[in-house]
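Exercise: predict the fold of this chain.
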Amino acid sequence: MNTPTPKATFDITAKASRGTAITAEGLLVPRVDRQRAQSMTGVVTSTLIYVDSVTTGTQTGTAAQIDAVGYYYFNGTSWVKLIAAAPASVNIYNNNGTLTDNRTVQQAGNTLAFTSTATTGTNHFSVDGSTFSVDAVNNRVGMGTTAPQNRLDLGSTAGSSATDVNGKKLAVYNNATGSSFYGLGVHSNTLQIHAASTATAAPGMVLTNTGRVGIGDPAPVANFDLVGNTFGIKNSTGSGSWDNLWFNVTAQGATINASGAESGMQFRVGKNTAGTYGDSQTLTTVATMMPDGNMGIGNTTPGERLSVVDGGNANQYSGIAAFEANNRTQGVGIGWAGIQSIGTNGSVALNLNAKGSGNIIMQTQSTGNVGIGTASPNANALLDLTSTTRGFLPPRMTTAQRDAITTRPAGLMVYNSSTARLEYFNGTAWVAF
């Protein structure tokens, strides 16, 4: 039509295919309503119509697919839309689904945010169940739990022992093989602290739920347990020579080294009713150990191997040291003025005894009697010298030496080696026996 050279069985050429002509041109197919299309019989396949109304007829039979105005063709059984309606959008926002291949989100310079308006619940965004869970109501993240109780909750699982790999919960560093774990772990109500631990290594430090700390000991039995051969305290960081206190514990013994203590190592005790933590309290230096080997008790600058200074001047015979029997009935006290018997038994004797049975050198009775060579001096003698094999040896001197004694009390006795006589001073002159 409108062409002398048709190129198909029915070729329609526009009267004016170009330009600004206003005459309408096109192909106008039959226009019917749904009732009319539904009523047709003997329709040939590929018949084309335009349904201009769906208010009539019903969506049954050959009109089962006629649900909207538009072009329809007959497929031999029913009328079919020439242009099918676009399918409903299918995406992660309105449908569940399964990935058919690997997918990547290219954000470029854009952000990707997930927001929630939930007011209840806990697991508002998750990956593989409890592997990663977000509680948007309380702003919490769970790993190993879908109901996190803290800002970051790693779940309630714990190691069955100190070496269980499942107890190593949070790593701040680990190498590619998992053999250098730095981080935190949990086992048996115990917090673990690891540094370079292998997968099955015990933690270097722990804190139990009872407040006990263990270093080198995963199961401390005291408030602070330190296991190792050596440990020290120093007053500075880094390497070099610093004042320090060093402890060394081996199978052969234990030592404590105080290095750089040129003023000595002191032991101080606070006498406050309630002690103040640290050095800001009244402290008494009980003992001082000097680097030259001298030790002082009550003396911070001892000049002897052992220097003991009494805390007062009242107990001149027992203020420095006391040695008592277990029942505390008798003992010996040492003071700055001498030695004294002490204990609840007020009449006990004071003995000076050489090693061996019966070798009493001297005994002082509470009555003032002194015995040498006897444990029971005569009650009427101020001094009782007892022996069956030895005698009394008075001072021996010449006459000139005797006369050189400037103050001679009556009764003073000497042996005059010039005259070979035992002499005593009668208050006026020397008298020979």
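Check your answer against the key: The chain has two helices and 32 strands.
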